[in-house]
């Protein structure tokens, strides 16, 4: 059982075109999401961290990356 879906409000206006820096840090029991170096949200793991192999982004988004660190 996953439980109730967790959602956080989006601080950016729709159709606002600019680049933002998003970082997701995995801790032993939770993920912490940072946007432009400010903490936006925390989410507790719903499955052991070792079982997580990918994530997805949904919506009208263009992704650019200068590097991804996993592990």
Automatic annotation (TrEMBL):
Domain (Galectin) ranges: 1-71
Cited SUPFAM superfamilies: Concanavalin A-like lectins/glucanases
Pfam families: Gal-bind_lectin
Superkingdom per UniProt: Eukaryota
Keywords in alphabetical order: Lectin
A molecular-function term among this protein's GO annotations: carbohydrate binding
Name by which UniProt lists this protein: Galectin
Gene that encodes it: ORF220479
């Amino acid at each position: 059982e996953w439980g109730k879906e967790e959602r956080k409000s989006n601080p950016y206006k729709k159709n606002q075109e600019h680049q933002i820096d998003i970082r997701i840090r995995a801790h032993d029991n939770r993920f912490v999401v940072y946007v432009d170096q400010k903490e936006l949200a925390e989410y507790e793991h719903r499955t052991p961290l070792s079982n997580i192999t990918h994530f997805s982004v949904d919506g009208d988004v263009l992704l650019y990356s200068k590097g991804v660190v996993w592990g």
